[in-house]
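Record 1 of the preview.
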Amino acid sequence: MGLPWYLKPDLFLHADMLDQLDELNSSASSSHADVLRQDKEIERLKTRITELEDQLLALEKILSQHGILPPMPEEPEDPEASNLPPDAPAIFPARTEEVIACPRCGRRQKGNRNACYACGLPFQYEAE
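->
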């Protein structure tokens, strides 16, 4: 004799619960993957913006040399910068993941570096 009806496993209910569990697990891992993918995309776009800004600056310089655009203004001399020795570090409030510009060469880079990748100017952070 078999089991009474109230003790028999409901295979459809069990399969449905397993499907819901799989769906919940996949949505949790996919949301984490989506966040990571979005972070990578943001970093890639920031890098691309920096590249485009550099290209635009170079193009503006060329066009101003050929007289198509008005001459590029000379960069103003910072009186405080002239008093500093050439290898004095650039001082920033704190490290950041955002893009900053080097005070010496103007190259844009992440604000968590110890020195500029282009000119080698050391960066110092007040929070450290």
